[in-house]
Amino acid sequence: MKISKTVYLILALIFLFSFIQSLFDARITPKIFFWEVNIWVYRLFRLAVAVLFMKSYLDMKKEEKKTAD
Fold first, then answer.
1. In a domain, 30, yes or no
2. Host H or E run for residue 67
């Protein structure tokens, strides 16, 4: 199954927004996959996922540009 590069961009933006929102959240121990974790671990997880989706999007865009030339 091939996912459109636009989906990767949208997911990156959603996780980036989630990361920024967590900076203003008052929770001390959010949950990731049913486990309570430190707020900084949660923020790092959100930021890492956003970066991975953005990297995938940029790699796909670069590959598409390379094949178009």
1. yes
2. helix 39-68
15: containing domain: 5-64
Residue 69 lies in a domain: no
Handedness of CA 7, 49, 21, 33 (dihedral sign): positive
Match 């959100």 to its residue by tokens: 46
Does the pLDDT at position 64 exceed 60?
A: yes
Quick one: what percent of the chain has pLDDT higher than 70?
96
Tokens of 8: 């990767």
* CA-based radius of gyration for the chain: 15
Number of separate domains in the chain:
1
Entry field: residues in the chain:
69
Asked whether residue 11 carries a pLDDT value surpassing 60, the answer given is yes
**pTM of the predicted structure, to 2 decimals:** 0.79
